[in-house]
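Review this fold:
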Amino acid sequence: MQAALLDLGFTEPTPIQVLAIPPALEGRDVLGSAETGSGKTAAFGLPILQRLMDRPRGKTRALVLAPTRELADQIAKHLMSLAKHTNVKVAAIYGGVGFRPQLNALKRGADILVATPGRLLDHLKQRTARLDDIEMLVLDEADRMLDMGFLPDVRRLIAQVPTKRQTFFFSATLSAQISGLVREILRDPVRVELAAKIAPVKTLSQTLYAVPQEKKTDLLVELLKDNNIYSAIAFTRTKARANRLAAALEKHRVPVNLIHGDRSQSQRTHALEKFKQGQYRVLVATDIAARGIDISALGHVINYDVPLVAADYFHRVGRTARAKASGDAITFVSSDEEPLIRQIEHTLGKRLERGKNPLFPEASTEPPKPRVVYRSRPRRR
């Protein structure tokens, strides 16, 4: 594992790794909350690998549950990198791709299984996967699983896992439902809490542009004339808006691709890989990608639409300025989105910088007031 860490260029542990790895190595349950990009995968992955290296092969002894295909794939690849000098096998199980390759991976024997709840339940129903020998269980992004309606599936899976096990539980927030699940599945956990300060990292620059809804695409095209924006993820609120934005950028000859829920897994994987290679300058995405994309050299995040929930803003902008690198977050704010920005600023505890809109260089940096039309009352006859 030390050789793998050297290969990956890891020279010092992140704060969550410092706090989580020692109790995890002692076999304690861990309840953790930390900002995205903080190194959670290695925080639970290294103790799991340490425990499995000398165990007999052929049984799945560790299960990692994740809410999205992208996050499951990302976790699996990271664990494979950490395990590459060992004989520990890792398999990823998620929907949107063919059943047969995953079935073959299970038949070959996976020591660690990384899965989304729905696809894993499919395998259990068909008896192509077993959880009888699970000794370590990880729930990553548990709050996101709750948001996506996976809590009943998660409970069904936990019911099939041995009660005598070590559990790692990571969640950005602890709602009443999440807290109930924590009490059910954790035994005297060590609390590792780094997400109380939700503010993005200091190396992140954040700028707002006041712009009417109908001018957002024009503003993005104008900003892309600056060659400093060499790679950007543009987040929209809906799949339909993502499709329209991507089509508009294509018309302006901007290399662009899409990631959202209506795209197949192969399309999403292709888009992400080609974006990482620099083939696409802009990746348009809905919030399905906010917690599952790991791009080490992402320069810009553009909030084409302000998210409805403040927490989603922090997950979006957390895609850039990772691992002490610098990054820029740009947010387009129409007049009707101003209350959402105030909510984000309240959470941050500060007012975000307003930039001069290059489309309207003489205009105010504040969003235009909604136009009110007064009509006279019809006369009574």
